[in-house]
Amino acid sequence: QVQLVESGGGSVQAGDSLRLSCAVSGRTFSSYAMGWFRQAPGKEREFVAAISSRGGATYYPGSLKGRFTISRDNPKNTVYLQMNSLKPEDTAVYYCAAQRRISTVVLITRNDYDYWGQGTQVTVSS
To answer: What is the DSSP string of 97-119?
Structure first.
């Protein structure tokens, strides 16, 4: 069983940066494609970033490209989301997700992932 635990959320001002972390249990982290999603109150959960199992490929929606960066440290079983120039509209609960997939493929929809963390709140005030 894979368990995911997010951390690093908090309350910041517009323009600030935050780095979220997601620690993943298990000995086969490098076999999992990873993703970040977010959900604001009253809205659908939306895709934020994805990275392939070995880290060679990443993908972002156009609206976030350039501000958000996903990375992973396989020996530490951790995936990160660096968020810069934060805006109030970035306020949401951020979730990491995992799916066993040894390849260069990135997975960008919710249904692609079987494993989810409990989420971490990010609040950006103007």
So the answer is: EEEE--SS----SGGG-SEE---
Q: Concatenated DSSP letters for 69-105?
A: EEEEEGGGTEEEEEE-S--GGG-EEEEEEEEE--SS-
57 DSSP assignment: -
Integer Cα distance of 98 and 91 in angstroms: 22
φ/ψ of 52, rounded to 5, equals: -75, 170
Structure confidence at residue 96 (pLDDT): 98
> pLDDT tens, 44-92?
999 999 999 999 999 999 999 999 999 999 999 999 999 999 999 999 9
Residues 6+ apart with CB under 8 A from 91: 40, 122, 123, 124
Identify the CA nearest to 104 among candidates 36, 49, 57. Answer: 57
CA pair distance 48, 109, nearest whole angstrom:
10
